[in-house]
Amino acid sequence: AGFKGLGDTRAALQISFATVLLNCGLNGPFIRRWGVAGAAHATSVSACVATLVALARLAARRVRVFEDAKPDAATLKTIARVGAPVGGSGMLFTLVYVVLGRRLAALSGGAALAALAVGHRIEAVAYTITE
Questions:
Q1: Using CA atoms, how far apart are residues 93 and 109, in angstroms rounded to an integer?
Q2: How far apart are the first and last CA of the chain?
Q3: Labelling 2: which of 56, 57, 71, 117 has CA 20 to 30 A away?
């Protein structure tokens, strides 16, 4: 979101795409070693790497990330108005995956959950490209 706010959608796309590729690359070996938990570990590692890369790129642009900014009420209201649709969509998306994951776990166990995780990563590639 930081790069998009700066008008640099290319950096956001590059980091998102690299994150998805890293996640896909780690899924196989991590799932083989740790089962379903390996998919979660791969996602966590990928997210941490993406965060560090994004912070480094923002720092290179001299963007102050950890500043004690105190926005006024009007700014907070604008942020809430603009962010509510995206936030609501994200919450709904997450809820669907939680319900789907619980159903799959009850029906088939670990293999179905691992397949869901891999499918989610493939979907993330399409989302990243169209974002």
A1: 22
A2: 11
A3: 117
CB 129 within 8 A of CB 19: no
Angle value at C-alpha 98, between 80 and 38, nearest 5 degrees = 110
**Burial class of residue 30, CB neighbours in 10 A (0-12, 13-18, 19+):** buried
118: Cβ contacts below 8 Å, ≥ 6 apart:
24, 27, 39
Please state whether the predicted TM-score (pTM) of the whole model is above 0.85.
Answer: no
User: Of all helices (H) and strands (E), which one includes residue 2?
Assistant: helix 2-5
Residue, of 62 and 26, whose pLDDT is higher:
26
Tokens of 7: 């008008």
What was the pLDDT predicted at 111?
A: 80
Express each pLDDT in 32-85 by its tens digit: 999 888 988 999 999 999 999 999 998 888 887 777 678 889 988 998 998 899
Give the integer Cα–Cα distance in Å for 93 and 110: 21
